[in-house]
Design a protein that fits this description.
315 residues; alpha/beta; globular; binds NADPH dihydro-nicotinamide-adenine-dinucleotide phosphate; NADPH-protochlorophyllide oxidoreductase; plastid; NADP
Amino acid sequence: RKGTVIITGASSGLGLATAKAIADTGKWHVIMACRNFLKAVKAAKKAGISEENFTVMHLDLASLDSVRQFADTFKRSGRPLDVLVCNAAVYLPTAKEPTYTAEGFELSVGTNHLGHFLLARLLLDDLKQSDYPQKRLIIVGSITGNTNTLAGNVPPKANLGDLRGLASGLNGQNSSPMIDGGEFDGAKAYKDSKVCNMLTMQEFHRRFHEETGVTFSSLYPGCIAETGLFREHIPLFRLLFPPFQKYITKGYVSEEEAGKRLAQVISDPSLSKSGVYWSWNKNSSSFENQLSKEASDEEKARKLWEVSEKLVGLA
Ligand code: NDP
């Protein structure tokens, strides 16, 4: 049978390129889990993804009700779940004030981390039950977890501190909108959310790999300087960022190439090791990358897991 893969945020950028790459193999059916249904259908058609290889299902990660509804709808569809890819993200580097999810969490961490945390928890059993030879849960990370690169060290740096802001609700009312309890900074909130993604992948691995046989992985696909992620940035940045990445840092990767990389993490038998943060070298070959100190802190991962469970109503 064909494999079934859910990809969140498949309506643009990396998610769309991955949906295209994996659907074109003819061996997979892609569930595009997107907040804007029509945009996703149009994007899939424009990318030339053949109709029998994809289904769009509504998912707004900035609402935990929507996440629960999506999980229910998927379960009732009767499809098996072989791979889940947590890819969607928002990045608000120029925001002066925080904005919030339906439940009142700061939007970047609420969407990128908490929405995906609940989704992955709700669908873990479905992955466990899959009889597919290799079942996987992938959470897209970022370079902010690599201390061995220049880009991973550009300020403001990620720092979750002792999680005091998150533990008290991340709502900007009776708590700070930042995980570490500090002042709002949109670029930092995004980086913090990506560290959460990488810590969550490892905690899933420690708690569930042996019991479920699921492979848990994360990746940094390279700098895809032309995706919608930078849509909130100032125009000059959007003009200069792609050539800067191409010619100066040489970290640039096209959407198509990045999509092929994530597709490898979905289905390549040689990338089946669990608990790994994948990266690619200049020749586009994959390797197991080292994570920064904070992004591999086991104690923090455990605490983040417990606090997140409370916030999304699982504990
Ligand atoms: P895009 O902005 O192009 O894609 C982000 C996707 O997430 C869009 O489909 C968007 O939907 C979706 N999304 C945003 N908010 C929600 C929500 N509330 N519910 C459901 N979906 C939502 O960015 P990229 O493709 O660049 O980013 C994809 C992933 O790659 C992210 O995890 C990012 O952190 C990661 N990444 C990107 C890098 C880069 O250089 N671009 C580098 C390293 C990692 P819509 O189309 O409706 O806006």
